[in-house]
Amino acid sequence: MHNERLEFLGDSILNCVVASILYERFVTIDEGDLSRLRANLVKQQSLYEIAQKLELSQFLRLGEGELKSGGFRRPSILADTLEALLGAIFLDAGFNPARDVIRAFYIPILESVDPQTLGKDAKTLLQEFLQSKKISLPLYNVVATHGAAHSQEFEIECLVPKLGIQVYGRGGSRRAGEQAAAKLALEVAEQALVKTPAAGRKSKPRAAQLKLAGIATVQTTEAAVNPEPSPPPAKAANK
Amino acid sequence: MHNERLEFLGDSILNCVVASILYERFVTIDEGDLSRLRANLVKQQSLYEIAQKLELSQFLRLGEGELKSGGFRRPSILADTLEALLGAIFLDAGFNPARDVIRAFYIPILESVDPQTLGKDAKTLLQEFLQSKKISLPLYNVVATHGAAHSQEFEIECLVPKLGIQVYGRGGSRRAGEQAAAKLALEVAEQALVKTPAAGRKSKPRAAQLKLAGIATVQTTEAAVNPEPSPPPAKAANK
Protein backbone atom coordinates (compact mmCIF):
# COMPACT_ATOMS: atom_id res chain seq x y z
CA MET A 1 0.00 0.00 0.00
CA HIS A 2 1.71 3.19 -1.13
CA ASN A 3 -1.32 5.32 -1.77
CA GLU A 4 -0.85 7.87 0.98
CA ARG A 5 -0.65 10.85 -1.34
CA LEU A 6 -3.79 9.73 -3.16
CA GLU A 7 -5.50 9.20 0.20
CA PHE A 8 -4.66 12.79 1.17
CA LEU A 9 -6.19 14.02 -2.07
CA GLY A 10 -9.23 11.74 -1.80
CA ASP A 11 -9.86 12.77 1.79
CA SER A 12 -9.87 16.42 0.67
CA ILE A 13 -12.40 15.80 -2.10
CA LEU A 14 -14.54 13.73 0.22
CA ASN A 15 -14.64 16.43 2.90
CA CYS A 16 -15.50 19.06 0.32
CA VAL A 17 -18.28 17.09 -1.35
CA VAL A 18 -19.83 15.93 1.93
CA ALA A 19 -19.77 19.55 3.11
CA SER A 20 -21.65 20.66 0.01
CA ILE A 21 -24.19 17.82 0.27
CA LEU A 22 -24.89 18.73 3.91
CA TYR A 23 -25.06 22.43 3.09
CA GLU A 24 -27.72 21.81 0.45
CA ARG A 25 -29.69 19.22 2.37
CA PHE A 26 -29.86 20.79 5.83
CA VAL A 27 -30.63 24.43 5.19
CA THR A 28 -31.47 25.40 8.75
CA ILE A 29 -28.67 23.89 10.80
CA ASP A 30 -25.66 25.94 11.83
CA GLU A 31 -22.01 25.46 10.91
CA GLY A 32 -21.18 23.71 14.19
CA ASP A 33 -23.75 21.03 13.42
CA LEU A 34 -22.63 20.80 9.78
CA SER A 35 -19.12 20.19 11.08
CA ARG A 36 -20.25 17.52 13.53
CA LEU A 37 -22.28 15.73 10.86
CA ARG A 38 -19.43 15.79 8.39
CA ALA A 39 -16.91 14.51 10.94
CA ASN A 40 -19.20 11.58 11.61
CA LEU A 41 -19.89 10.81 7.96
CA VAL A 42 -16.23 10.78 6.89
CA LYS A 43 -14.75 8.98 9.91
CA GLN A 44 -12.98 5.67 9.45
CA GLN A 45 -15.91 3.51 10.52
CA SER A 46 -18.27 5.23 8.06
CA LEU A 47 -15.83 4.83 5.17
CA TYR A 48 -15.25 1.21 6.17
CA GLU A 49 -18.98 0.51 5.94
CA ILE A 50 -19.14 2.07 2.47
CA ALA A 51 -16.08 0.04 1.41
CA GLN A 52 -17.78 -3.12 2.61
CA LYS A 53 -20.92 -2.39 0.59
CA LEU A 54 -18.66 -1.95 -2.45
CA GLU A 55 -16.87 -5.21 -1.59
CA LEU A 56 -13.66 -3.27 -2.03
CA SER A 57 -11.60 -5.93 -0.25
CA GLN A 58 -11.79 -8.19 -3.32
CA PHE A 59 -9.78 -5.70 -5.31
CA LEU A 60 -6.99 -5.05 -2.82
CA ARG A 61 -3.46 -6.10 -3.68
CA LEU A 62 -1.68 -6.54 -0.39
CA GLY A 63 1.78 -7.61 0.69
CA GLU A 64 2.25 -11.11 2.06
CA GLY A 65 2.42 -9.85 5.67
CA GLU A 66 -0.85 -8.01 5.36
CA LEU A 67 -2.50 -10.99 3.65
CA LYS A 68 -1.52 -13.31 6.50
CA SER A 69 -2.72 -10.87 9.15
CA GLY A 70 -6.08 -10.45 7.41
CA GLY A 71 -5.27 -6.90 6.31
CA PHE A 72 -7.98 -6.93 3.66
CA ARG A 73 -10.54 -6.96 6.44
CA ARG A 74 -8.98 -4.19 8.53
CA PRO A 75 -11.23 -1.11 8.77
CA SER A 76 -8.29 1.29 8.44
CA ILE A 77 -6.99 -0.35 5.25
CA LEU A 78 -10.40 -0.42 3.61
CA ALA A 79 -11.21 3.16 4.63
CA ASP A 80 -7.85 4.38 3.31
CA THR A 81 -8.38 2.46 0.09
CA LEU A 82 -11.73 4.14 -0.44
CA GLU A 83 -10.12 7.56 -0.01
CA ALA A 84 -7.35 6.68 -2.46
CA LEU A 85 -9.97 5.50 -4.95
CA LEU A 86 -11.77 8.85 -4.69
CA GLY A 87 -8.47 10.64 -5.21
CA ALA A 88 -7.85 8.59 -8.34
CA ILE A 89 -11.33 9.32 -9.71
CA PHE A 90 -10.76 13.05 -9.14
CA LEU A 91 -7.39 12.93 -10.92
CA ASP A 92 -8.67 10.87 -13.85
CA ALA A 93 -12.09 12.36 -14.38
CA GLY A 94 -12.26 15.64 -12.44
CA PHE A 95 -14.41 17.06 -9.67
CA ASN A 96 -17.92 16.43 -10.97
CA PRO A 97 -17.55 12.66 -11.53
CA ALA A 98 -15.89 12.32 -8.10
CA ARG A 99 -18.75 14.31 -6.59
CA ASP A 100 -21.34 12.07 -8.25
CA VAL A 101 -19.69 8.95 -6.88
CA ILE A 102 -19.57 10.42 -3.37
CA ARG A 103 -23.19 11.52 -3.62
CA ALA A 104 -24.21 8.00 -4.59
CA PHE A 105 -22.50 6.70 -1.44
CA TYR A 106 -24.05 9.20 0.93
CA ILE A 107 -27.59 9.87 -0.28
CA PRO A 108 -28.87 6.51 1.05
CA ILE A 109 -26.98 7.02 4.31
CA LEU A 110 -28.47 10.48 4.78
CA GLU A 111 -31.99 9.07 4.37
CA SER A 112 -31.64 7.29 7.68
CA VAL A 113 -29.72 9.91 9.64
CA ASP A 114 -31.05 12.26 12.30
CA PRO A 115 -29.04 15.49 11.91
CA GLN A 116 -29.88 16.51 15.48
CA THR A 117 -28.23 13.48 17.05
CA LEU A 118 -25.69 11.94 14.64
CA GLY A 119 -22.21 12.01 16.11
CA LYS A 120 -23.25 13.29 19.51
CA ASP A 121 -22.12 11.36 22.57
CA ALA A 122 -24.58 9.82 25.03
CA LYS A 123 -24.05 12.40 27.79
CA THR A 124 -24.82 15.25 25.39
CA LEU A 125 -27.88 13.45 24.04
CA LEU A 126 -29.19 12.75 27.55
CA GLN A 127 -28.63 16.35 28.59
CA GLU A 128 -30.39 17.72 25.50
CA PHE A 129 -33.30 15.31 25.95
CA LEU A 130 -33.78 16.32 29.57
CA GLN A 131 -33.49 20.03 28.75
CA SER A 132 -36.17 19.64 26.08
CA LYS A 133 -38.46 18.24 28.79
CA LYS A 134 -37.44 20.95 31.29
CA ILE A 135 -35.96 18.34 33.61
CA SER A 136 -32.85 19.21 35.61
CA LEU A 137 -29.47 17.79 34.56
CA PRO A 138 -28.39 14.24 35.42
CA LEU A 139 -25.90 13.55 38.19
CA TYR A 140 -22.94 11.19 37.82
CA ASN A 141 -21.12 9.50 40.70
CA VAL A 142 -18.27 7.03 40.81
CA VAL A 143 -19.71 4.06 42.73
CA ALA A 144 -16.67 1.81 42.58
CA THR A 145 -13.44 1.13 40.77
CA HIS A 146 -12.24 -2.37 39.96
CA GLY A 147 -8.93 -3.85 38.89
CA ALA A 148 -5.30 -2.77 39.13
CA ALA A 149 -4.12 0.74 38.26
CA HIS A 150 -3.10 -0.11 34.69
CA SER A 151 -6.42 -1.77 33.80
CA GLN A 152 -8.89 -0.04 36.04
CA GLU A 153 -12.60 -0.20 35.43
CA PHE A 154 -14.94 2.50 36.68
CA GLU A 155 -18.48 1.88 37.76
CA ILE A 156 -20.56 5.01 37.43
CA GLU A 157 -24.04 5.80 38.65
CA CYS A 158 -26.26 8.15 36.64
CA LEU A 159 -29.17 9.75 38.49
CA VAL A 160 -32.17 11.64 37.12
CA PRO A 161 -34.12 12.19 40.35
CA LYS A 162 -37.19 13.73 38.70
CA LEU A 163 -37.73 10.53 36.71
CA GLY A 164 -36.61 8.20 39.46
CA ILE A 165 -33.77 6.98 37.23
CA GLN A 166 -30.72 5.37 38.80
CA VAL A 167 -28.66 3.31 36.36
CA TYR A 168 -25.07 2.11 36.17
CA GLY A 169 -22.41 2.06 33.52
CA ARG A 170 -18.87 0.73 33.36
CA GLY A 171 -15.85 1.74 31.39
CA GLY A 172 -12.06 1.83 31.31
CA SER A 173 -12.16 5.51 32.30
CA ARG A 174 -14.48 7.66 34.34
CA ARG A 175 -15.65 9.28 31.14
CA ALA A 176 -16.32 5.94 29.42
CA GLY A 177 -18.30 4.75 32.44
CA GLU A 178 -20.35 7.96 32.42
CA GLN A 179 -21.09 7.55 28.72
CA ALA A 180 -22.24 3.95 29.26
CA ALA A 181 -24.48 5.05 32.13
CA ALA A 182 -25.84 8.01 30.15
CA LYS A 183 -26.73 5.72 27.24
CA LEU A 184 -28.75 3.50 29.51
CA ALA A 185 -30.39 6.45 31.29
CA LEU A 186 -31.42 7.94 27.95
CA GLU A 187 -33.07 4.70 26.87
CA VAL A 188 -34.97 4.55 30.13
CA ALA A 189 -35.94 8.22 30.06
CA GLU A 190 -37.20 7.96 26.49
CA GLN A 191 -39.18 4.87 27.34
CA ALA A 192 -40.72 6.59 30.36
CA LEU A 193 -41.54 9.90 28.70
CA VAL A 194 -41.89 9.51 24.96
CA LYS A 195 -43.24 6.06 24.50
CA THR A 196 -46.06 6.37 27.04
CA PRO A 197 -49.16 5.55 24.94
CA ALA A 198 -51.33 8.58 25.85
CA ALA A 199 -49.19 11.65 25.36
CA GLY A 200 -51.44 13.94 27.37
CA ARG A 201 -51.61 11.64 30.39
CA LYS A 202 -49.16 12.02 33.25
CA SER A 203 -46.35 9.50 33.02
CA LYS A 204 -46.74 6.64 35.48
CA PRO A 205 -43.78 7.01 37.83
CA ARG A 206 -44.32 3.68 39.55
CA ALA A 207 -44.35 1.70 36.28
CA ALA A 208 -41.31 3.61 34.96
CA GLN A 209 -39.41 2.87 38.12
CA LEU A 210 -40.21 -0.83 38.01
CA LYS A 211 -39.05 -0.98 34.41
CA LEU A 212 -35.88 0.70 35.54
CA ALA A 213 -35.06 -1.95 38.02
CA GLY A 214 -35.01 -4.44 35.18
CA ILE A 215 -33.29 -2.33 32.56
CA ALA A 216 -30.57 -1.15 34.87
CA THR A 217 -29.18 -4.65 35.10
CA VAL A 218 -28.61 -4.62 31.32
CA GLN A 219 -24.85 -4.46 30.89
CA THR A 220 -22.97 -2.46 28.30
CA THR A 221 -20.93 -4.50 25.82
CA GLU A 222 -17.72 -3.55 27.57
CA ALA A 223 -18.99 -4.86 30.89
CA ALA A 224 -20.65 -7.92 29.34
CA VAL A 225 -17.33 -9.41 28.21
CA ASN A 226 -15.96 -8.94 31.71
CA PRO A 227 -17.13 -11.77 33.99
CA GLU A 228 -17.05 -9.69 37.19
CA PRO A 229 -19.91 -9.59 39.67
CA SER A 230 -22.88 -7.48 38.53
CA PRO A 231 -23.23 -3.93 39.79
CA PRO A 232 -25.80 -3.37 42.51
CA PRO A 233 -29.35 -3.49 41.16
CA ALA A 234 -31.11 -0.19 40.55
CA LYS A 235 -32.49 1.16 43.75
CA ALA A 236 -34.97 3.58 42.25
CA ALA A 237 -37.88 1.20 42.61
CA ASN A 238 -37.34 0.82 46.33
CA LYS A 239 -37.02 4.48 47.26
CA MET B 1 -21.89 38.88 9.89
CA HIS B 2 -24.09 35.83 9.46
CA ASN B 3 -22.06 33.95 6.92
CA GLU B 4 -20.99 31.02 9.06
CA ARG B 5 -22.60 28.35 6.90
CA LEU B 6 -21.01 29.88 3.79
CA GLU B 7 -17.67 30.00 5.61
CA PHE B 8 -17.95 26.30 6.37
CA LEU B 9 -18.61 25.57 2.71
CA GLY B 10 -15.86 27.92 1.50
CA ASP B 11 -13.34 26.45 3.91
CA SER B 12 -14.12 22.99 2.52
CA ILE B 13 -13.62 24.08 -1.10
CA LEU B 14 -10.44 25.91 -0.16
CA ASN B 15 -8.94 22.87 1.59
CA CYS B 16 -9.82 20.66 -1.35
CA VAL B 17 -8.41 22.95 -4.02
CA VAL B 18 -5.22 23.72 -2.09
CA ALA B 19 -4.76 19.98 -1.59
CA SER B 20 -5.02 19.38 -5.32
CA ILE B 21 -2.69 22.27 -6.19
CA LEU B 22 -0.07 20.91 -3.74
CA TYR B 23 -0.57 17.35 -5.01
CA GLU B 24 0.15 18.44 -8.59
CA ARG B 25 2.96 20.83 -7.79
CA PHE B 26 5.01 18.81 -5.32
CA VAL B 27 5.12 15.34 -6.76
CA THR B 28 7.81 13.91 -4.51
CA ILE B 29 6.74 15.04 -1.04
CA ASP B 30 4.77 12.75 1.23
CA GLU B 31 1.27 13.18 2.63
CA GLY B 32 2.56 14.43 5.99
CA ASP B 33 4.33 17.30 4.28
CA LEU B 34 1.35 17.97 2.00
CA SER B 35 -0.76 18.24 5.14
CA ARG B 36 1.68 20.59 6.84
CA LEU B 37 1.90 22.82 3.77
CA ARG B 38 -1.85 22.97 3.38
CA ALA B 39 -2.42 23.79 7.06
CA ASN B 40 -0.02 26.69 6.71
CA LEU B 41 -1.52 27.99 3.45
CA VAL B 42 -5.12 28.01 4.68
CA LYS B 43 -4.54 29.31 8.19
CA GLN B 44 -6.11 32.57 9.30
CA GLN B 45 -3.00 34.68 8.78
CA SER B 46 -2.53 33.43 5.21
CA LEU B 47 -6.17 34.11 4.31
CA TYR B 48 -5.92 37.53 5.94
CA GLU B 49 -2.96 38.40 3.72
CA ILE B 50 -4.89 37.35 0.62
CA ALA B 51 -7.91 39.37 1.78
CA GLN B 52 -5.70 42.42 2.20
CA LYS B 53 -4.32 42.08 -1.33
CA LEU B 54 -7.92 41.97 -2.56
CA GLU B 55 -8.76 45.01 -0.39
CA LEU B 56 -11.73 43.02 0.81
CA SER B 57 -12.30 45.30 3.78
CA GLN B 58 -13.78 47.97 1.51
CA PHE B 59 -16.67 45.68 0.69
CA LEU B 60 -17.59 44.59 4.20
CA ARG B 61 -20.92 45.58 5.65
CA LEU B 62 -20.48 45.48 9.41
CA GLY B 63 -22.68 46.25 12.41
CA GLU B 64 -22.13 49.49 14.28
CA GLY B 65 -20.28 47.78 17.13
CA GLU B 66 -17.84 46.12 14.76
CA LEU B 67 -17.35 49.38 12.84
CA LYS B 68 -16.42 51.24 16.02
CA SER B 69 -14.02 48.54 17.14
CA GLY B 70 -12.28 48.51 13.75
CA GLY B 71 -13.71 45.08 12.84
CA PHE B 72 -12.98 45.59 9.16
CA ARG B 73 -9.28 45.38 9.94
CA ARG B 74 -9.47 42.30 12.16
CA PRO B 75 -7.65 39.30 10.65
CA SER B 76 -10.33 36.84 11.73
CA ILE B 77 -13.14 38.82 10.13
CA LEU B 78 -11.29 39.28 6.87
CA ALA B 79 -10.21 35.63 6.73
CA ASP B 80 -13.76 34.45 7.42
CA THR B 81 -15.09 36.80 4.78
CA LEU B 82 -12.71 35.37 2.21
CA GLU B 83 -13.93 31.86 3.01
CA ALA B 84 -17.56 32.94 2.74
CA LEU B 85 -16.79 34.54 -0.61
CA LEU B 86 -15.30 31.28 -1.89
CA GLY B 87 -18.39 29.43 -0.67
CA ALA B 88 -20.59 31.86 -2.56
CA ILE B 89 -18.57 31.47 -5.77
CA PHE B 90 -18.87 27.68 -5.48
CA LEU B 91 -22.63 27.90 -5.00
CA ASP B 92 -23.17 30.40 -7.80
CA ALA B 93 -20.73 29.13 -10.39
CA GLY B 94 -19.61 25.63 -9.38
CA PHE B 95 -16.34 23.95 -8.56
CA ASN B 96 -14.17 24.93 -11.53
CA PRO B 97 -14.63 28.70 -11.24
CA ALA B 98 -14.02 28.50 -7.49
CA ARG B 99 -10.90 26.44 -8.16
CA ASP B 100 -9.63 29.01 -10.67
CA VAL B 101 -10.07 31.84 -8.19
CA ILE B 102 -8.22 29.90 -5.49
CA ARG B 103 -5.44 28.99 -7.91
CA ALA B 104 -5.02 32.65 -8.79
CA PHE B 105 -4.56 33.43 -5.09
CA TYR B 106 -2.05 30.71 -4.41
CA ILE B 107 0.13 30.37 -7.50
CA PRO B 108 2.08 33.57 -6.67
CA ILE B 109 2.38 32.53 -3.03
CA LEU B 110 3.72 29.11 -3.98
CA GLU B 111 6.42 30.70 -6.12
CA SER B 112 8.10 32.01 -3.00
CA VAL B 113 7.54 29.07 -0.66
CA ASP B 114 10.04 26.44 0.41
CA PRO B 115 8.04 23.21 0.79
CA GLN B 116 10.73 21.77 3.06
CA THR B 117 10.42 24.46 5.69
CA LEU B 118 7.02 26.20 5.41
CA GLY B 119 5.02 25.80 8.58
CA LYS B 120 7.78 24.09 10.56
CA ASP B 121 8.69 25.51 13.94
CA ALA B 122 12.18 26.83 14.73
CA LYS B 123 13.23 23.86 16.90
CA THR B 124 12.36 21.41 14.13
CA LEU B 125 14.15 23.53 11.52
CA LEU B 126 17.27 23.80 13.68
CA GLN B 127 17.27 20.06 14.34
CA GLU B 128 16.85 19.22 10.65
CA PHE B 129 19.55 21.67 9.65
CA LEU B 130 22.03 20.22 12.14
CA GLN B 131 21.17 16.64 11.14
CA SER B 132 21.79 17.50 7.50
CA LYS B 133 25.29 18.64 8.54
CA LYS B 134 25.80 15.55 10.75
CA ILE B 135 26.05 17.75 13.84
CA SER B 136 24.63 16.48 17.11
CA LEU B 137 21.35 17.87 18.42
CA PRO B 138 21.11 21.20 20.24
CA LEU B 139 20.72 21.40 24.02
CA TYR B 140 18.20 23.63 25.74
CA ASN B 141 18.48 24.82 29.35
CA VAL B 142 16.35 27.11 31.44
CA VAL B 143 18.75 29.83 32.57
CA ALA B 144 16.31 31.95 34.53
CA THR B 145 12.66 32.73 35.04
CA HIS B 146 11.39 36.25 35.59
CA GLY B 147 8.15 37.73 36.88
CA ALA B 148 5.26 36.44 39.00
CA ALA B 149 3.67 33.03 38.50
CA HIS B 150 0.79 34.29 36.33
CA SER B 151 3.02 36.23 33.94
CA GLN B 152 6.27 34.31 34.07
CA GLU B 153 8.92 34.73 31.44
CA PHE B 154 11.43 32.00 30.70
CA GLU B 155 14.96 32.63 29.60
CA ILE B 156 16.31 29.68 27.67
CA GLU B 157 19.82 28.90 26.53
CA CYS B 158 20.35 26.95 23.30
CA LEU B 159 23.71 25.25 22.85
CA VAL B 160 25.27 23.73 19.76
CA PRO B 161 28.72 22.83 21.16
CA LYS B 162 30.20 21.68 17.84
CA LEU B 163 29.60 25.15 16.36
CA GLY B 164 30.37 27.03 19.56
CA ILE B 165 26.85 28.39 19.58
CA GLN B 166 25.36 29.62 22.82
CA VAL B 167 22.35 31.90 22.36
CA TYR B 168 19.39 32.94 24.46
CA GLY B 169 15.68 33.24 23.88
CA ARG B 170 12.77 34.39 26.00
CA GLY B 171 9.12 33.54 26.03
CA GLY B 172 6.00 33.27 28.16
CA SER B 173 6.49 29.51 28.38
CA ARG B 174 9.46 27.22 28.38
CA ARG B 175 8.49 26.10 24.90
CA ALA B 176 8.18 29.66 23.60
CA GLY B 177 11.59 30.51 25.03
CA GLU B 178 13.11 27.44 23.37
CA GLN B 179 11.57 28.40 20.04
CA ALA B 180 12.99 31.93 20.31
CA ALA B 181 16.44 30.54 21.16
CA ALA B 182 16.25 27.97 18.35
CA LYS B 183 15.37 30.67 15.83
CA LEU B 184 18.43 32.66 16.79
CA ALA B 185 20.66 29.57 16.86
CA LEU B 186 19.51 28.60 13.37
CA GLU B 187 20.35 32.04 11.99
CA VAL B 188 23.79 31.85 13.53
CA ALA B 189 24.40 28.27 12.39
CA GLU B 190 23.34 29.05 8.83
CA GLN B 191 25.59 32.09 8.78
CA ALA B 192 28.51 30.07 10.10
CA LEU B 193 28.09 27.04 7.82
CA VAL B 194 26.22 27.97 4.66
CA LYS B 195 27.20 31.52 4.01
CA THR B 196 30.95 31.00 4.38
CA PRO B 197 32.27 32.25 0.98
CA ALA B 198 34.40 29.23 0.00
CA ALA B 199 32.25 26.19 0.50
CA GLY B 200 35.16 23.77 0.55
CA ARG B 201 37.14 25.63 3.18
CA LYS B 202 36.84 24.71 6.83
CA SER B 203 34.53 27.07 8.67
CA LYS B 204 36.36 29.53 10.88
CA PRO B 205 35.27 28.70 14.38
CA ARG B 206 36.89 31.78 15.91
CA ALA B 207 35.14 34.20 13.56
CA ALA B 208 31.85 32.41 13.96
CA GLN B 209 32.15 32.61 17.70
CA LEU B 210 32.90 36.30 17.67
CA LYS B 211 29.90 36.93 15.45
CA LEU B 212 27.88 34.98 17.91
CA ALA B 213 28.79 37.20 20.77
CA GLY B 214 27.22 40.07 18.89
CA ILE B 215 24.24 38.27 17.46
CA ALA B 216 23.30 36.65 20.72
CA THR B 217 22.39 40.02 22.16
CA VAL B 218 19.75 40.41 19.46
CA GLN B 219 16.45 40.11 21.27
CA THR B 220 13.32 38.43 19.99
CA THR B 221 10.35 40.75 19.48
CA GLU B 222 8.74 39.45 22.64
CA ALA B 223 11.76 40.36 24.71
CA ALA B 224 12.31 43.67 22.92
CA VAL B 225 9.01 45.12 24.13
CA ASN B 226 9.93 44.15 27.68
CA PRO B 227 12.30 46.67 29.24
CA GLU B 228 14.00 44.20 31.56
CA PRO B 229 17.76 43.87 31.86
CA SER B 230 19.40 42.03 28.93
CA PRO B 231 20.22 38.35 29.24
CA PRO B 232 23.85 37.54 29.90
CA PRO B 233 25.99 37.99 26.77
CA ALA B 234 26.99 34.93 24.79
CA LYS B 235 29.87 33.16 26.43
CA ALA B 236 30.96 31.05 23.47
CA ALA B 237 33.69 33.45 22.43
CA ASN B 238 35.42 33.17 25.79
CA LYS B 239 35.49 29.41 26.10
From TrEMBL, chains A, B:
Mg(2+) binds at E7, D80, E83. InterPro entries: dsRBD_dom, RNase_III, RNase_III_dom, RNase_III_sf. Residues 1-94 form the RNase III domain. It is found in: Cytoplasm. PROSITE patterns: DS_RBD (PS50137), RNASE_3_1 (PS00517), RNASE_3_2 (PS50142). Residues 121-191 form the DRBM domain. GO terms for molecular function: ribonuclease III activity. It is an enzyme of class 3 (hydrolase). Its EC number is 3.1.26.3. Keywords: Cytoplasm, Endonuclease, Hydrolase, Magnesium, Metal-binding, mRNA processing, Nuclease, RNA-binding, rRNA processing, rRNA-binding, tRNA processing. It catalyses: Endonucleolytic cleavage to 5'-phosphomonoester. Its main location: cytoplasm. Signal peptide: none annotated. Its cofactor is Mg(2+). Gene3D superfamilies: 3.30.160.20, Ribonuclease III domain (1.10.1520.10). Pfam families: dsrm, Ribonucleas_3_3. The active site is at D11, E83. Belongs to the ribonuclease III family. Homodimer. Digests double-stranded RNA. Involved in the processing of primary rRNA transcript to yield the immediate precursors to the large and small rRNAs (23S and 16S). Processes some mRNAs, and tRNAs when they are encoded in the rRNA operon. Processes pre-crRNA and tracrRNA of type II CRISPR loci if present in the organism. This is Ribonuclease 3. It comes from Duganella violaceipulchra.
